[in-house]
Amino acid sequence: DAGVTQSPTHLIKTRGQQVTLRCSPKSGHDTVSWYQQALGQGPQFIFQYYEEEERQRGNFPDRFSGHQFPNYSSELNVNALLLGDSALYLCASSNYRINTGELFFGEGSRLTVL
Amino acid sequence: AQSVAQPEDQVNVAEGNPLTVKCTYSVSGNPYLFWYVQYPNRGLQFLLKYITGDNLVKGSYGFEAEFNKSQTSFHLKKPSALVSDSALYFCAVRDRRSGGSYIPTFGRGTSLIVHP
Description:
Helix content of chain B: under 10%
Largest sheet of chain A: 7 strands, mixed
Strand content of chain A: over 45%
Oligomer: heterodimer
Largest sheet of chain B: 6 strands, mixed
Number of strands of chain B: 12
Helix content of chain A: under 10%
Number of helices of chain A: 0
Distance between the termini of chain B: 41 Å
Shape of chain B: globular
Order of helices and strands of chain B: EEEEEEEEEEEE
Largest interface: A-B, 31 and 25 residues
Shape of chain A: globular
Number of helices of chain B: 0
Order of helices and strands of chain A: EEEEEEEEEEE
Radius of gyration of chain B: 14 Å
Structural class of chain B: mainly beta
Distance between the termini of chain A: 37 Å
């Protein structure tokens, strides 16, 4: 049973560039949430996708956008990168109808913006 | 609104001694509470959760946590620490009323260091 997979694992970009991160949820899960984890901080919620729609959004600017595909996989796009966007980006999957369920996290994509 | 406080940035304990990692929370209604562990350069792994029922919850790797409603706390404990328990620990809370859009709030994390 494959868990949550994310790609790429590491990437380096320069300010102003754009980046796309990818996530495949755990088998049987239909909901994907994205988190940003800066160094020394806890995960900060970016947004959640279910049924190919953004259902909830955290306090992140419009430069952060996403998409969910019919197979439940998801992408996170960040435009006009800033130095402060350097972080570990975590994808977490869950089942929308299981309210008490824990999140299953991928290993993360570590983004460095120079 | 919901929030989590982990008052200790770092906890140091000797191998074989009991450990406690503290967590307090704030939610409007009743909480769902979770603990996750993160090893270096890895994602978060689920340890245990409190949904309802017995206030003492047992989880993975010998960890347990005690829910205390009056003190709004959910401290993580283990009777005998191992060096391999050294990692970053995150407490998370979610309001039970928030429905299917499952959005927990995470604390800042506590670094647990177990000395041989």
